[in-house]
Design a protein that fits this description.
The protein is α/β, with parallel strands linked by helices. The chain is built from two helices and five strands; from the N terminus they run E-H-E-E-H-E-E. The chain has a five-stranded mixed sheet with strand order 2-1-3-4-5, with helices on one face.
Length: 139
């Protein structure tokens, strides 16, 4: 087991789309919709890891070196139209490029989910010196 000092780079995704399931759908259709969305979440995960690996100084060599958290939202209204991403524990020394990394993750979100209208992002370094929000609006 490899032990690392410090905190894991963590990417938190909020308000991502839920499966579009109705009571009138067959069991097969419901399962297909869940599988479709699961495939998109897996793509978002792997593409985010790939972006993190491409940034020097983040210390990400594989998915074992970071956490991608997909938060469950209790209210489905509006999900998938406005998304928030919070990146925590950006290593010190990468401050100058943390907004570049945040923008790259926001671009991944918009590529995987092209119907999202607004993505709000925040990058927080290890010392918790909060960076202001970045907003990417897709039209």
């Amino acid at each position: 087991m490899k032990v690392k000092r410090g905190s894991f780079l963590t990417v938190n995704f909020y308000c991502l789309p839920h499966p579009k399931i109705t009571d009138r759908m067959s069991i097969e259709a419901k399962e297909a919709e869940r599988a479709r969305l699961e495939k998109l979440y897996k793509r978002l995960h792997s593409d985010t890891v790939s972006v993190a690996r491409s940034f020097d100084g983040l210390g990400v060599e594989s998915e074992a070196d970071m956490l991608n958290l997909f938060h469950s939202d209790l209210m489905s209204h509006g999900l998938g139209t406005e998304v928030k991403v919070v990146i925590q524990n950006v290593p010190l020394g990468v401050e100058a490029r943390r907004n570049d990394f945040l923008r790259a993750v926001m671009e991944v979100i918009s590529e995987v989910f092209p119907d999202i209208r607004k993505i709000i992002g925040e990058a927080i370094p290890e010392k918790n010196d909060r960076e202001r929000y970045l907003i990417l609006e897709s039209h």
